[in-house]
């Protein structure tokens, strides 16, 4: 009655179980073992189910025969269909009716012991795969957009250069001094815009531009149009300016330098100092020439020429201070722009 109960318990297990003698002969196999390996295996040996060589399984059985503690092992067994299956083994010495045997459980290595966890892992893997596909698509779209943006910058730069050439040609051909002066101012402003556009085209950043190269580029561009009438000294702090700030600031700087060239550039040793400084409250642009200074009459040409500067300062939300301090000194203060 006790043996029948033990056999019933073993038959209830869903993994193959063998009771083998010290040589590996199968004395008992449960229902799961007979279903997987065939009822004919009873009476055979466990070694019959193993691919050559047998030494690893023999050594494992010997170790199990020396202890009642469960020992782990592994073996690849051939099922009744001829398929090879990898098992994790759990074996220990036991006795039945005074005869020593080895009790061996065969746990399927590929059997999922934690189905809920494994299902969640599969779900996460699928989600990761999908996210990677989406990321790859977005990165490809970003690269395409960057290429299109740089191509746009390149075309705008070329168009500005063509426009500057047309204006310069018209300036040379006109006989009117007033028209020539107006065209010169237009060329200078377009040149400043073109310099800023070139910096945007060459920059690795999509939304910002470095402050020091920006100031130097605008001063250099303006110097090419005003000739050697004025010596320009440049000092600028390192930082980042948004493109929305850069364009009006380039026009402001060009206008102030052009005015300095007209009024300070006519004297011997005429010079202008340009500084762009970064502080806790924002940025400060200073343009200080050593000319005769600002005239008292607001209707003077120099004063009226500041109309564009004032309008651009309003666009920036900047303050403008103009004063006489051993020449004309202009200070434009504007806050940092939020980068989006």
UniProtKB/TrEMBL annotation:
UniProt catalytic activity: ATP + protein L-histidine = ADP + protein N-phospho-L-histidine
Residue span, Histidine kinase domain: 151-338
SUPFAM superfamilies: ATPase domain of HSP90 chaperone/DNA topoisomerase II/histidine kinase (SSF55874), PYP-like sensor domain (PAS domain) (SSF55785)
Keyword NADP: no
Entry-linked PROSITE patterns: HIS_KIN, PAS
Transmembrane spans: none
Origin superkingdom: Bacteria
Biological process (GO), any one: regulation of DNA-templated transcription
Gene3D superfamilies: Histidine kinase-like ATPase, C-terminal domain, PAS domain
Name of protein: histidine kinase
Organism: Pseudorhizobium pelagicum
